[in-house]
Amino acid sequence: MSTRRKVLIVEDSGATRELLRAAVESLIEVEVHTAVSGFDALKVLPRHRFELIITDINMPDINGLELINFVKKNPHYKDTPLFVVTTEGREQDRDRGLQLGADEYVVKPFVPEQLCELVRRYLKL
Amino acid sequence: MSQFAELLDRFFYRPDEAVGSFLEQAPISDRIAEALPDETPEEFLAFVLEGETYAVPIGAVREILKVTDVTEIPRARKNIIGLINVRGEMLPLFDVKVRLRLAEVPPVVLTGKDVGRAARILLLKDLEGDAGVLVDRVEGVVKLQLSRLEEAPGLGIDRNAIAGLGHRDGQLFILLDVEQALS
Amino acid sequence: MVAPRALSEFIAEANEILEALGRELLALEESGLEQADPDRLNAVFRAAHSLKGLSAMFGLESISRLAHHAEDLLDALRLGKAPLDQALLDLLGQVVDMLQEMLGEASRGEDSTELKERSEMLAGELQQLASGGGQDTADVLDQVGIDPQVRAVFTEYEEHRLRENVKKGVGLWKVRAVFSLEDFDTRLATLNASLKPLGEVISTLPSSQPGDDSSIAFDLIFGSSKEKAELEGRLLEGATLAPLTDKMFSTPPPPPPQRKKAPLWDDKSISGPALSPLASFTSTPSGLSRLATTPEPSLRSLTNTVRVDIGRLDGLMNSIGELLLIRSNIEKLSDAARQASGPALPKLWGQELQREVRALERRLDELQKGVLDVRMVPLGQVFDKLARLMRRLVRESSKDVVFDVSGGDVELDKLIVEELSDPLMHLLRNALDHGVERPEARTRQGKPPRATIGLVAKQQGNHVIIEVRDDGAGIDEARVREVAVDRGLVTREQTEEMERRELLNLVFQPGFSTRRDVSELSGRGVGLDVVKTNLQRLSGLIDISSRRGEGTTFTLTLPLTLAIIRALMVKVSGRTYAIPLNAVLEIVAVKDEQLRTIEKREVIEVRGQTTPFIRLARVFGLPEEKRPVHSVVLVGLAQQRLGLAVDELLGQQDIVTKPLSGRLRGIPGVSGATELGDRRAVLVLDIGALMEELLRTQVAAS
Q1: Which of B181, C23, C440, C500 has the fewest C-beta atoms lying within 10 Å of its C-beta?
Q2: Which has the higher per-residue pLDDT, A21 or C520?
Q3: Chain C residue with minimal CA distance to A43?
Q4: Which residue of B7, B71, B130 is in closest CB contact with C661?
């Protein structure tokens, strides 16, 4: 069993997912898992104890807001910190995300170092 | 049984020498005499063509291969000895001796038996696609200081194919300009 | 900073997005602009949105900017703030083409100002259209009384769809379904598929109140004009229906009379309750079973497709090649062991080995087929793009043309498919520009004013045939002859001996062009010779047939894959060569005394046809042996024939052809190399190029 801290990245764009992964994985204490959609996230969530979730908003099937709402109201997951990744200029999505209980938001295009700093802070690394 | 033995010989992978093993030995460079403190010498792979010692930057060498089967290519350029199969990759094998005026005609090589036991193929990395160069013998790795390289004198040799001259321990190393030598 | 893995991923993904975007736009156009499918509009918007974000992250500012403007316009479209019309679709089509060009530049590391300027202009046009949209009035959603908690999770788009449903006056429902964690995705997809024909699924919300740890609940926000009873009758097991708001529930008409729903219940009770839950899908009323089993493509495609870099497949193919070699080496070892004189033990081993070799062979076959299958992609990938471009070109031209495409589902090696788009585009532009006539001219000749240009693909054995045909004026061979003689491609005497077909094939000669005025449409000075060379690189053939006044057809014949071909192995002066079997017509033995010469050129007669006889050894400058009987490989492409004399025929073999690297490209008559059992590289002959060369220069016999 790995003792590394598990982070879930939910992002439907493969290239963006790889960028997010590359950024977060630069922290050696972190083990990154990924989901390609809100749906996929629902399947992955119960399988691990994630200590942080990073999710995109605009996704097919279940969108990021719906995922946040689910996570933040579910007794199993509600204390897991959650970051929203939003695209520049979609303030409404960002605001709703924060209202629903997202802990931080990251604006695309993001700066890897800043993202890492946030992850470090929330995981107390 | 000799046919059987030959098959076995063919079947079992005979590892070609990795460039790295030369680096570890680096026989010539061990005797560093007068390195300037502020300049790290560059590493070159030294090899012999018709008794003269040539060198190319170690970074340009992908691997060193023993000479096995070579396929002639009809109507190819004169300096192409043929085609070699490097683990499934089809790469050209070049002769540079004619270009360097060390020989009149390129050698005909069809199998490893057509060359000396010490002959090797230097597989060079190249933008236009990697290419092999047939050499008589591989000498080893030599460290040369870039600032001390000389320009080649115009002694009837084709200066375009030569990037410069280097010295170490009284030995002369002719630096090959790979791009030019293969053109 | 950008990880290289992500970078190549970016190019691939951006390409995929653009392809999807083009496809969706085409579908929008075909389905009619009045009732554009909201899902489709949203898909187009999402594509532009993703591309914007993606390219911004990779620092491709200009792509991101153009995608951004497109996104704004599409956002207005899907939110109903701008009307969808043909002009707008055309503009979007141009945007897709432009983005593709820009991506092409980006992948080559270029950055031209010309492209940038054109992109700025397009962006300006987009901006103008987007800002012209109308305003929304008071928000109807406020009046409906939806739980603000529910509303909070809606994206702007979902709110818009909700609004549209309210405006239409349909009922809004909350469908709650509880599924097992094991299979909730497929079950939800089925539920979605069954709801879709009844109304619109506006949003899918995972519920925060699960029954237990092994299941998950969903709320589907659903708009439908159907009555509650009918909806309930069609719900899957485990799903319940409730009105979304109290207000909505208070206004709908009184419950429908019992009589009306009776048949539904009857239906259900006939096949019903005794069946196990698994079978409940088939027990739904007859009209619905079809709908329920209709797969939901959007969901499945997410999980069922894998993008693989073609380089990795080549790598796999190489490993298979290696494995094949090892196999044949083990086989030789086992043969040698079995035949060895001496102790019996090696013989037994030999037999054992032989058995293992057979097993290995079967597995290798499977693996090889598997990898080849993965390389295959439908031609539709290219056809869709061409269709979009053709529609635009037709609109810009003064001609009335139907563009007829079929066979997009035929599959070919990905490498071939990608290389095909340029030659096909050229032929199509040619057909539009030079082939078909203007409506007036057609009417004068008694043809229907509307012309047809067709693009048809079909598979024939190991080949794919693609035809580009038009019902235009056909090619004037007198004019072809005149031009060819004018340009010094042939002499007048030569043309007099030529058949019509040969004359037509002159259009593929370099430097041939029947029209001086290079038009806006087909121009840029690229001739059919380039098309032919491109096809030859793909081991393909092109042939032309044309009838005056009736039209012209270009027929392209392509191998299914370039990776593995069947070849005839021959020996010439001790050297082995591979001749692709698709070019071999037959093998004949010719006695030395049967050779004839015409103007010092050697010829043979095969089935009454005089055929040039070429000694391969002589062509390649290899020593020739004198022999009484020649083995002749009769090769042919299109209408041409050539007899190649070789020393020995070694038989047929499947070979994995490998391209020759940079410095070896352009060696005449050689298309690649392959390896046989002994690791020696064997050259694969390029019959098309050899024929062209030999028939043109006609090696003189001396």
Answers
A1: C440
A2: A21
A3: C181
A4: B130
Asked if C306 reaches chain A (Cβ–Cβ under 8 Å), the answer is no
User: Testing the interface with C: which of A26, A43, A45, A69 to mutate, by most C Cβ within 10 A?
Assistant: A69
Q: Do C87 and C180 lie in a common domain?
A: no
Specify the number of domains making up chain A.
1
Min mean pLDDT across C69-78, C634-643, C647-656 is at C634-643
Q: Domain residue spans in chain B? A: 14-182
> At C687, which amino acid appears?
I
- A95 has pLDDT over 60: yes
Q: Which of C332, C337, C658 sits opposite B90 (nearest CB)?
A: C658
What is the chain B residue with the closest CA to C668?
B75
Binning pLDDT at 50, 70 and 90, where does residue C433 land? confident
The pair of structure tokens assigned to C485 is 């003689």
Instruction: Tell me which residue in B1, B72, B91 faces C661 most closely, judged by beta carbons.
Output: B91
The closest of C437, C396, C385 to C520, measured between CA atoms, is C396
> Number of structural domains, chain C?
5
Q: Which of B147-161, C245-259, C665-679 has the highest mean pLDDT?
A: C665-679
Which residues span the domain enclosing A61? 5-123
Asked if C267 contacts C286 with a C-beta cutoff of 8 angstroms, the reply is: yes
Q: Do C681 and B90 touch (CB under 8 A)?
A: yes
Whether A46 sits inside 8 A of C181 (CB atoms) is yes
- Name the CATH superfamily for B14-182: CheA-289, Domain 4 (2.40.50.180)
Interfacial C residues in 140-179 facing A (CB < 8 Å): 152-156, 158
Q: How does the average pLDDT of chain C come out, rounded?
A: 77
HEC sequence for chain A: CCCCEEEEEECCCHHHHHHHHHHHHCCCCEEEEEECCHHHHHHHHHHCCCCEEEEECCCCCCCHHHHHHHHHHCCCCCCCCEEEEEECCCHHHHHHHHHCCCCEEEEECCCHHHHHHHHHHHHCC
Residue C669 belongs to some domain of the structure: yes
pLDDT at residue number C678:
67
Nearest to C673 among B11, B75, B83 (CB): B83
Across C573-680, the runs of DSSP E, i.e. the strands, are 575-580, 584-591, 596-598, 601-606, 609-615, 629-637, 640-646, 648-656, 670-675
Q: Is the pLDDT of residue B121 over 80?
A: yes
Range of the domain at C519: 398-475+514-559
Tell me which residue has tokens 């007829």. C404
Q: What is the mean pLDDT of residues B99-121?
A: 89
Residue C28 lies in a domain: yes
- Check CB contact under 8 Å for C50 and A37: no
- The rounded distance, in Å, linking the Cα atoms of A35 and C133 is 37
Assess whether the previous peptide bond of A109 is cis (omega < 30° from 0): yes
- Paired sense of beta strands B137-144 and B42-49, if any: antiparallel
Give one DSSP letter per residue of C55-69, joined into a string: HHHTT-HHHHHHHHH
**ipTM above 0.85 for this complex:** no
Chain C hits for A73, Cβ within 8 Å: 208-209
